[in-house]
Amino acid sequence: MANYPSGVVIVTTTNDEGLPVGIAANSFTSLSIDPLLVLWSIGNKSSSYDIFNHSKQFAVHLLAGSQLELVNTFSRKDIDRFEQIEWSLSESGLPIIEGAYATFECDTFETIVAGDHAIITGSVKHITTNIQNPLLYHQRRVGPLPLTFHGNI
Ligand SMILES: Cc1cc2nc3c(=O)[nH]c(=O)nc-3n(C[C@H](O)[C@H](O)[C@H](O)COP(=O)(O)O)c2cc1C
Which residues form the Flavin reductase like domain (predicted)? Predict the structure, then answer.
């Protein structure tokens, strides 16, 4: 599966105590246009599995090419992730990370347990964009979209 190229996102929410929680993910994709739905999946060994499964809302940050360090921060277990970064709470109470090229604030639509992951679908309620070069994931490597990339569809 690592041969399939994707973008990289950070998904955030808050736990029962109102503290920010976040995880790096490449399983994010578009699901439906009308209504506007997205999905991502979380492994059942993740420390935030139960939190995301029960949270009523979450925010997805599509990472920019310059945000490689955020992937390290949000996939390491031994650090306070939100201590390392610039973030703030949105009007709806979701932790928003600065500098992403798009942010989707979502209400959880449906959660489906599938094998050792849960598919979390979200109804997009608010979008902010700051279009720039995206961060990509391929064969366990993460980096910006090469400037030599061409082709329109
Ligand atoms: C590029 C990349 C993509 C990842 N994609 C996912 C994903 O889609 N779903 C998931 O559950 N974990 C994914 N992970 C792993 C989590 O980020 C990592 O296991 C997790 O944050 C570990 O800490 P936790 O137990 O606190 O969640 C990914 C990691 C990296 C580096």
Answer: 1-144
